[in-house]
# Entry
Amino acid sequence: MSKLWGGRFAKKTDEIVQQFNDSLPFDQRLYGQDIAGSIAWARGLVGAGVLTDAEMQTLVEGLELVRDEFENGRFPFAEGDEDIHTAVERRLTELVGNVGGKLHTGRSRNDQVAADFRLWVMGAVRRIQIWVRDLQHAMIANAEANLHLPMPGYTHLQHAQPITWGHFMLSHFWPLQRDWERLEQIWEETAVCPLGSAALAGTAYPIDRQAIADELGFRAISQNSLDAVSDRDFAAGFLYTAVMISTHLGRLSEQLILFNSAEFGFIRIDDGFSTGSSLMPQKKNPDTLELTRGKSGRVLGNLMGLLTTMKGLPSTYDKDLQEDKEPLFDAFDTLSMTLPVMAGLLNTLTLRPERMQAQLEPTLLATDLADYLVKKNLPFRTAHHLVGEVVQTAENKNIPITALSLADFQAISPHFGDDVTAIFNFQASLASRATTGGTSPAALAAQVRVAKLRSEAG
Ligand code: ARG
# Structure
């Protein structure tokens, strides 16, 4: 099979160079976008006076046949098909004859691949947004079912202040909301059509670029042909967002792995979402969560790889850019598993309120105790110090702070009265964090309302 660019070559491409150069093994995934782009281009060529209506019709029908062949797994690959663009054009010409050779008039694989890739990213963004929404809705459902269930809150992984399960679960909703909005921005950035940029300098035919862009669902056309064939910022942006999503899932995974351990025992992962050990019969491992945590590394690697490829490239298209696609395909495939797996895991998760209850020890209320002294008009700094002494006294006596006598309290500060016992009330502590974003029942009910509203869009 002769090459599309074979005219100026006296010698056959070396076998190993052929293999090295070919991108078909991975870019055949773009066949749908490539064919859609070619159909729009063929229509554009009529307006430019290059094709007759009948020729265009022949090309469009031929391209649709090629699409059917791909869709039914019947596309006959041939030696010399170096990428999806050459494969489609070669096959089209076999099917429709010489007129197939007119399709590439005024365009280059440089603007073609940029357009195909952008169309793929636009579709991928929409798919990921759906998976993100499904996970967000699983989080809201899980949060609502246990909205006011008290549990210890942590900083530095140490007991800090009481919170509720609903508040904790929703703390993982908002990062995904930001990701969803980032995806929206990436779609906007990506939906700019480069077709008509040709190899680098623009096309020599009077093509209606806007009409082609409209037909393909782009929102705008590019303004500089040199930039248009080399710009992969949208691809890096897509990967950055994939990294953020993976990082968010990884952090939630780590938290749930801890909560699932015998030491915490706050949750039980459903049998359908855990796996066993080949040696230890008792084991039920949170592999799904560990894999999700682990895969954030590979997605980050994809971003690093692409950025490193892009860095320092001279103007305009360079073959280095052929390396742009696999990292995105891999990131997309990874998210196509991690997002639905996390949603399934949350939808089947069992909580163990008694285990959370057992961890609600009174030093979690030390801040509330300081606030009590503040209400007696002590400066917060002084109150903080005095409560520190209370905690130390209890520790020295090896008893909980709730077992200290009023005399013990008053030895530390005369501002402690017998009303101090009222402070050791978890519900009251939770209810006091009532500003927007706080853990109180009222604030939480409001948060759920806003979360539902924000996650409706799209
Ligand atoms: N397979 C190439 C890629 O993925 C298509 C563009 C080829 N352009 C070129 N001038 N060789 O980037």
Summary: The chain has a mean pLDDT of 96.
